[in-house]
Amino acid sequence: MLGLRLWMLPLSAGFVATVVLAIVVITGPSTESPSSAAANTPSDTSAPAEEPAVGASTAAANPAPDSLMAEMPISSIVTPPGGTSAPDFVGIDRWLNSPPLSMEELRGKVVLIDFWTYSCINCERTLPYVRNWHEKYSDRGLVVVGVHSPEFEFEKDLDNVKEAIVRLGVSWPVATDNQFRTWRSYENRWWPHKFLIDQDGQIRYHHIGEGAYEETELHIRNLLEEANSDVSDIPLAGVLTLNQ
């Protein structure tokens, strides 16, 4: 959502000029939102504000471009050590594309949890990259789980979600989190927000908003290699553009 902020600027003792400064802001607490993040925050009380997300810190999200371009190549990256156990999936209304999953049964796998909602344009712009990772690494031990936490009432409708995941080409497991219980377990505040969890169930990396695609993929590869999965034959990146 867009908002306007107004300031009254006194120019002299004799008169006051009103200067209207229009600043595009993304709905959410201005004191904590990344200054350039292409991300969205809750606009109602269905998902109350929480503290910053648990897990390893990460770079601020990048602004949304008109088309998604390949980022500058990164030769290598160090994935921070763990320290926070990933919460389990709780309060899930329905599982789509998969039977119910738990963090316990996913031990030994590398898990990418993507908090999203289908009418969020920032979420939609990240999906080609999530799809690319799912297709390249699912048989090497990566499990992608989309936690669908709706911003609006119509996004709670199961038929709408089913139609959206077909239309958007989401073939990985999707957990509908209409009551925001899993969202709150991860102390989340953003759409989209991605968490990477290692084979031992530890949160090792997270990223808010769009961008950092090659960085995220390098962390995926690092964690898969830690789990003794050889990914050296898989080329890095592969998504160059997305026509809107």
Identify the notable features of this structure and list them briefly:
244 residues; alpha+beta; Glutaredoxin; 7-stranded mixed beta sheet; two-stranded antiparallel sheet; 4 helices; disordered N terminus
Description:
- The chain is of the alpha+beta class and 244 residues long.
- It has helices at residues 121-137, 158-167, 181-185, 213-226; strands spanning 7-10, 16-19, 84-85, 94-96, 110-116, 142-148, 174-176, 193-197, 202-208.
- The protein has one domain: Glutaredoxin.
- The chain is globular.
- It is 19% helix and 17% strand.
- The relative contact order is 0.23.
- Helix 1 links the parallel strand 5 (110-116) and strand 6 (142-148).
- The longest helix is centred in the middle third of the chain and has 17 residues, at 121-137.
